[in-house]
Amino acid sequence: MDHPRPCGCKGRRTCLSCEAEFGIVRSDFRSTFQNSESYVYCPLCNRIYPGWDVDQVMAEHSASPTAPHGGAPGEEYGGVFIDLHFLSEEEETDLIRTLDEIPWDVSQSGRRKQNFGPKTNFKKTRLKEGQFVGFPAATEFVQRRFESVPLLTTFQTIEQCSLEYDPERGASIDPHIDDCWIWGERIVTVNLLSDSVLTMSLYRGADGKPKYNLQFVDQYRDRLLGLLADEQSLACYENRIVRIPMPRRSLLVLYGSPRYQWEHSVLREDISDRRVCLAYREFTPMYLQDGSEFSQSEEIFKRAKLFWDHRKAALVS
């Protein structure tokens, strides 16, 4: 099980196909949360409220214009930005049509992906240009629109990854923190085709082994946009889950504490229809123009300014 299976899964990661074929008993990540208090982030007031069902909590906001959420004050949960209407229906339709004209690759846990970015080795912390030659031209307008979002005015896209979640394959993604050696603070996601939820769980690193290359954060901590929480503040979130809605055609940005001190996941139970998301990553400050490792990333920045016609590329290949 440590080697990739025909479906793309390996190790503990599974989908409906390999579970049936190999008789694998799936790790039920939701059951690990059953003894936790669950809260929902409301993007209409940027606070969290008790509950599991994101639709219900958002409906509670709209139920009374004078007393949203029944007058409950909610709690702060910084480091989250959501634009509920980032794309139009027509833009979504055009994007999906384009993405489906580009080959999809199998990935783990029932997902499919299209990756446009440099070649990275997270274990050896090695970076190469590889076959990266920029991004599909039909997706360029999404990156240009980031410039109108105050939080993203300095965002320089280095990787764009299309991820497809299909309930027929039991698609999901396990709790994790995006690598901190190479990917910068702002984790950007554009959601397409259906609503879903990002489930946040506090990361404690109980095994004592370094994970996610979190040790690199100390090298650029003074340049973070969002403050990291101290131990006293984190203690308030022990045994808590925060559920962040990802509505169709919305933009989600994680930064600060949710980026580095919380794991995020997409549960199988939260994929009811085909969902496609565009995930965008930036470099850590070490690889920016004034960083110590810029010599390794300078050529990649040049390639990241290129956009190519996917139809012409298909004819060449």
Automatic annotation (TrEMBL):
Its cofactor is Fe(2+). It comes from the Eukaryota. GO terms for molecular function: demethylase activity; oxidoreductase activity. Signal peptide: none annotated. One of its GO terms (biological process) is demethylation. InterPro entries: AlkB-like_sf, ALKBH4. This is Uncharacterized protein. It comes from Anopheles darlingi.
